[in-house]
Design goal:
Arc Repressor Mutant, subunit A; about 350 residues; seven-stranded mixed sheet; globular; alpha/beta; two-stranded antiparallel ribbon
Length: about 350
């Protein structure tokens, strides 16, 4: 096949940009862990010597790190005085934890993915799954850091209000289960917003449940919030007014079985809120920057997690609304709709 040199040059140029982003991921993790971005944001412009004085890190390493960050466009460089700084936008992205645009949680995930690559490579060869619990611990921490700001920004302001009658129930006092709760960020946010309601978070990953319990205790939520080790197919309790699941249904081996169990635990007029990664229904519609991220994460994390469990349906993180509807209605729900959305999430409402 004849090679078009101009197209090859353009493709190599694209790849060089991708390589630069990939090789720089570790530098973002280092800067986050050592507080380098925070030191620049809080202390203002600095040379490598000045940043060394603020952070206690070795100047020679900081000199190289700062130059790499400037080349990436992650910090600003003033050649006239040799100082580096963060623009207001860069400071939000790298130093303002809790802001929806805060990015280091993504890089924690990237670090875990790279460290777990041998396990996934072997899974490609054997077809077996890789459970959530088998991943590097940075995945659990990074997932919380990545998702919590988005939940904080959207859950009470738009997602719950978009559900039919749910906010009023929560304000009066409701019984709520949060499935696949991880470190408990979503459960705790809801409990803080609705003090008359009671919440229980379930996750099969015991270390995450321990972390969630500690977080709830630190927030002084008392007995209104508790966390238990259980799967979505066998979590205990009945008569829940609301069952929620955030970015986790597609990770389950038997999401139809989970849907069936959720249906059995709801009150007759109860609601199941399903938050999933945003996706269209066809591959070609998802060939965009968001789809690129979600397909990659799905290959390395979500699909292996599902394949490690019973049934192993392997929905993947880009299942799309049509496929999710099929799963939910197969579990016995008769009403299903898209309640709202963000650029990165679908918020779906299922009713008995």
């Amino acid at each position: 096949m004849a090679v078009d040199q101009a197209k090859l040059d353009a493709f190599v140029g694209k790849m060089l940009g991708d390589v630069g982003a990939a090789i720089g991921a570790a530098l973002v993790i280092v800067g986050d862990k050592l507080g380098l971005y925070r030191a620049l944001a809080e202390g203002g412009p600095a040379t490598s010597d000045e940043l060394a004085g603020r952070t206690g890190c070795a100047e020679r390493y900081l000199r190289e790190w700062l130059a790499a960050q400037a080349a990436a466009g992650y910090v600003e460089y003033d050649a006239a005085n040799g100082r580096y700084s963060l623009s207001p936008e860069q400071a939000v992205a790298f130093a303002e934890e809790g802001h929806p645009a805060f990015m280091p949680g993504f890089y924690d995930l990237i670090g875990s993915i790279i460290r777990d690559e041998p396990k996934i490579e072997e899974a490609f060869r054997t077809g077996r799954g890789v459970g959530w619990h088998e991943h590097d611990a940075a995945l659990f921490h990074g997932t919380e850091r990545l998702f919590r700001p988005g939940y904080a920004a959207n859950l009470m302001s738009s997602w719950i209000p978009a559900l039919d009658g749910v906010q009023a129930k929560l304000e009066r006092g409701a019984k709520v289960a949060d499935l696949g709760c991880g470190h408990g960020a979503s459960t705790i946010l809801m409990a803080q917003a609705f003090p008359k309601s009671r919440f229980v978070g379930f996750d099969y990953h015991a270390p995450s449940i321990e972390r969630a319990r500690a977080a709830a205790k630190s927030q002084g939520l008392g007995d209104r919030v508790r966390f238990e080790v259980a799967s979505a197919k066998d979590f205990p309790g009945r008569d829940y007014d609301l069952v929620a699941i955030f970015d986790a249904l597609h990770d389950m081996g038997d999401p139809v079985g989970a849907a069936r169990h959720v249906r059995e635990t709801l009150v007759p007029d109860g609601t199941w809120m399903i938050v999933e990664p945003f996706a269209y229904d066809t591959v070609e519609e998802n060939l965009n920057p968001i789809g690129r991220i979600f397909y990659a994460a799905s290959t390395m994390i979500c699909t292996p997690a599902s394949l490690s469990q019973e049934v192993g349906l392997g929905l993947g993180a880009q299942a799309g609304e049509k496929r999710l509807r099929e799963v939910v209605t197969a579990g016995g729900f008769t009403r299903f709709r898209r309640a709202t959305e963000t650029p990165v999430n679908l918020v779906l409402e299922a009713r008995p």
